[in-house]
Amino acid sequence: MTKLHELEESLGIVFGDKSLLTRALTHRSYLNEHPDAAFEDNERLEFLGDAVLDFLTAAYLYHRFPELAEGPLTSLRSALVRRDTLARFARQLHLDRYILMGHGEAEAGGRERPALLCAVFEALVGAVYLDQGIEAVQRLIRPLIEPEIVRIQQQHLDKDAKSLLQELAQGQLHHTPRYRTVAARGPEHAKEFTVQVSIGGKVYGEGRGPSKQQAAQAAARAAIKRLQGDHSD
User: Fold this and answer.
1) Total domain count, the chain
2) Which partner from 6, 34, 59, 85 sits 20 to 30 angstroms from 68, CA to CA?
3) What would the pLDDT profile of 31-71 be if each residue is shown by its tens digit?
């Protein structure tokens, strides 16, 4: 209870139903090791939070960018609610310190795993929504998404990174990027792929993701950042 109170103070939210906050922080591995626990894991709250986030980010972007067409708005929203972005939000709120997880999951680095952090953030959103309503969720996420939009636009994270990299690579280096999967780790339900992208035989970027496509996009973004840095004079 002390840790829950500490987190509530950090978030600026006092839950009427403390069990919602406990459930939002509970990974299924904790219940595997504590089958007598009187609460469930966070997967149902994650499902709800995902839907709430989709709606609120769409509404925010609709009002924030009245000149943008549907396509760019969709790309911006996708960048805001992608796994790595929500995992970053979880770290900013220090949720990793409060997650209830099994010893084995913790020993395997669960508190740093983007998929797990993303799920906890979505579950927290679902819990806040059930406990205090949509306006409380807006107050929670707005300070997170406003600077994130700036970062997304500065780094072109709302664009298709592979297409943008191909344009840059062919224009600057006269070569086409080549992608190679160099690792696939984790169980089938939580696989993480590592992809490297090379241009002219030289590795320019590496990325990780829950699918080869997402890992390739992350690798392309890393390569774009390097290319733009190399040609910033």
Assistant:
1) 2
2) 85
3) 988 888 888 999 999 999 999 999 999 999 999 999 989 98
Q: Same structural domain for residues 35 and 71?
A: yes
- What CATH number corresponds to the domain at position 7? 1.10.1520.10
Judge contact between 117 and 86, C-beta under 8 A: yes
Provide the mean pLDDT of the chain: 91
Give 76-117 pLDDT, tens digit per residue.
Answer: 998 899 888 999 999 999 999 999 999 989 998 889 999 899
Phi, psi of 208 (to 5 degrees): -125, 150
Whether 183 and 131 map to the same domain: the answer is: no
Task: List beta partners, residue 180.
Answer: 196
Q: pTM for the full model?
A: 0.74
Q: Indicate the burial class of 123 (C-beta count within 10 angstroms; 0-12, 13-18, 19 or more).
A: buried
- 183: pLDDT strictly greater than 80: yes
Among candidate residues 139, 154, 169, the one where a domain is terminated: 154
Question: What domain range includes position 176?
Answer: 161-230
- Identify which of 36, 136, 134, 140 has the alpha carbon closest to the alpha carbon of residue 86: 140
Does 37 lie in the same domain as 17? yes
Catalytic residues: 50, 122
